[in-house]
Amino acid sequence: MEHHPAAAWLTEAASSAVQQHGSGNLLRVVLIMMVLGCVLTAWFLLRGYKRKDD
């Protein structure tokens, strides 16, 4: 498996957050990112259903 510097940075940041503040903040960030991802995905998919009547 290849080593990606961005993935290493993300893993290090996550483990640092867990050590300093517990898992509550990490879980909060993950949940917020999931909600934002769902909203953006819904917007992207639903914008195609808009009809333009000329």
Automatic annotation (TrEMBL):
Q: Which UniProt keywords apply?
A: Membrane, Transmembrane, Transmembrane helix
Question: For this UniProt entry, which segments traverse the membrane?
Answer: 26-46
Q: What is this protein called?
A: Uncharacterized protein
From which source organism is this entry?
Streptomyces argyrophylli
Q: What is the lineage of its organism?
A: Bacteria, Bacillati, Actinomycetota, Actinomycetes, Kitasatosporales
